Amino acid sequence: MLMIASEIEVLARFGRALADPIRCRLLLALREAPAHPSDLAESLGISRTRLSNHLACLRDCGLVVAVPVGRRTRYELADARLGHALDDLRAAVAAVETDRACVRAAGENCN
């Protein structure tokens, strides 16, 4: 199956978003329910500044959207299918080997 450039870019964008553990945790939290940044920062145990940077990355990747709610902003997955994709990806990775580290040549971690 030949993939076109736009499909490859979409997958690469998703991969970049998942490359950071905090962004993974954010996506999984938003998979459960939309949330306000203050609640996300508290539940993830990170500063609001750090959270803001990660949310901006996920927005730029097109994976989350900011929804104005009065004077506050709520974040949610851009599409419900992303939640299903995260579930499928977790199940697929768990079905393979869970005790393996992603390592490049010369012992570098994949990031």
UniProtKB/TrEMBL annotation:
This is DNA-binding transcriptional ArsR family regulator. The keyword DNA-binding applies. One of its GO terms (molecular function) is DNA-binding transcription factor activity. Keywords: DNA-binding. Residues 3-100 form the HTH arsR-type domain. GO terms for biological process: response to cadmium ion; response to lead ion. SMART domains: HTH_ARSR. InterPro entries: ArsR-like_HTH, HTH_ArsR_DNA-bd_dom, HTH_Metal-responsive_Reg, WH-like_DNA-bd_sf, WH_DNA-bd_sf. It comes from the Bacteria.
